[in-house]
Design brief:
6-stranded parallel sheet, single chain
């Protein structure tokens, strides 16, 4: 599965979404989790690609971590963040004390000012993603999952969100049924949307005529 769109996707392109990276820290990889080592490595590679692209394109980035897991990080002076994921000075860091990324009140405040669209990635499982999706809908935010940069089946999240959604929980408050609370996109497709549009090719007539115009000025 690559993309499952909102009905309003054309008015809210993925290039305007804020990248939210969850639990890309040492304590997460040290804990006994449901991710196999090769799966964790694949997720982190996609997250690294997404982070680099977001920084290059000027996309806002928010790092979410669980403060209760800090005791499990390495005690040799290293950062809690995995190599390559240390937040920069202008990027936001949010401590979430629950399964949902919205367990901190600061996340919704930041997203309210950043366009209310989320691109979610990181070392989180289906339960945490489902809790985040529920809170995103409650806050009227549009949630997109990077399908190959998370540790769960994004299709299952979409199906569960769609099945649990009631008319009252529609993000626009209009009570429209059938609108998904969350959708997914691959990292490759998101990068394609971030890429600047290609310049249209010049007309053959202009290319042939330009040297002739320059030559006529020289003769004149």
């Amino acid at each position: 599965m690559t993309i499952a769109f909102y009905e309003t996707h054309a008015r809210h392109p993925l290039s305007t979404a804020t990248l939210v990276l969850a639990d890309v820290c040492r304590s997460r990889t040290m804990a006994e989790e449901e991710f196999a080592p090769n799966t964790t490595q694949r997720i982190l590679e996609r997250c690294q690609t997404a982070l680099e692209a977001a920084r290059s394109a000027g996309v806002p980035v928010i790092f979410v971590h669980d403060p209760h897991s800090d005791a499990m990080r390495l005690q040799d002076g290293q950062s809690r963040w995995l190599t390559g994921f240390a937040p920069r000075r202008y990027e936001s860091v949010v401590a979430s004390k629950g399964p949902s990324c919205y367990a901190s009140p600061y996340l919704s405040e930041i997203l309210d000012g950043a366009g209310r669209a989320i691109l979610l990635a990181g070392l989180l499982g289906l339960d945490a993603a489902a809790a985040t999706a529920k809170d995103a809908t409650r806050h009227g935010h549009r949630l997109t999952v990077l399908s190959d940069a998370v540790g769960f089946d994004s299709g299952a999240l979409i199906r569960n969100s769609h099945a649990a959604e009631s008319p009252r929980s529609a993000p626009d408050g209009g009570g429209s049924e059938g609108r998904l609370a969350v959708h997914a996109v691959s990292t490759k497709d998101w990068l394609a949307e971030l890429a600047p549009p290609a310049h249209p090719p010049r007309a053959a007539r202009w290319q042939l005529g330009a040297p002739l115009r320059r030559h006529s000025r020289i003769l004149g």
